[in-house]
């Protein structure tokens, strides 16, 4: 459910976020990032933020599953920044860079395997 208040919109979770199956829900929300219609775009974006904020050690094992959903949006030719003042391609690039920086020693190899056009932000 979406809570509309004076500080903005947020998702009202009916369960403790920490109890969610991150292997299932985090890729689901990342896949939704390609949505442009309201409220789906908001739910996908806010769901990703909420899960990443509360996931802790549950996030790292899911990173390989997140590459495919965000690969859909990388360089798709659409500029969503006009609508939401966010360029989805830039957000995806930043996300892949965070995966590479914090995903362990094999992060770059795994990202490059799934997204061949990705250029390392660490190994220049």
TrEMBL record:
- Where on the tree of life does the source sit, at the highest rank? Eukaryota
Q: Pfam families recorded for this chain? A: ParcG
Q: What cellular-component terms does GO give this entry?
A: cytosol; neuron projection; vesicle
User: Which InterPro entries does the annotation name?
Assistant: Parkin_co-regulated_protein (IPR019399)
What's one GO MF term for it? Hsp70 protein binding
What name has this protein been given in UniProt?
Answer: Parkin coregulated gene protein isoform X2
Q: To which species is this protein native? A: Xyrichtys novacula (Pearly razorfish)
């Amino acid at each position: 459910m979406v809570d509309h208040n004076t500080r903005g919109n947020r998702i009202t979770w009916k369960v403790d976020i920490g109890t969610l199956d991150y292997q299932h829900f985090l890729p689901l929300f990342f896949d939704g990032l390609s949505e442009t219609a309201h409220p789906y775009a908001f739910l996908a974006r806010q769901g990703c933020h909420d899960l990443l904020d509360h996931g802790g050690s549950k996030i790292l094992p899911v990173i390989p599953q997140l590459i495919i959903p965000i690969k859909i949006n990388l360089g798709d030719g659409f500029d969503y920044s006009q609508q939401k003042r966010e360029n989805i391609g830039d957000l995806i690039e930043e996300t892949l860079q965070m995966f590479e920086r914090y995903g362990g020693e094999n992060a770059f190899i795994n990202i490059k395997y799934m997204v061949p056009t990705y250029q390392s932000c660490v190994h220049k």
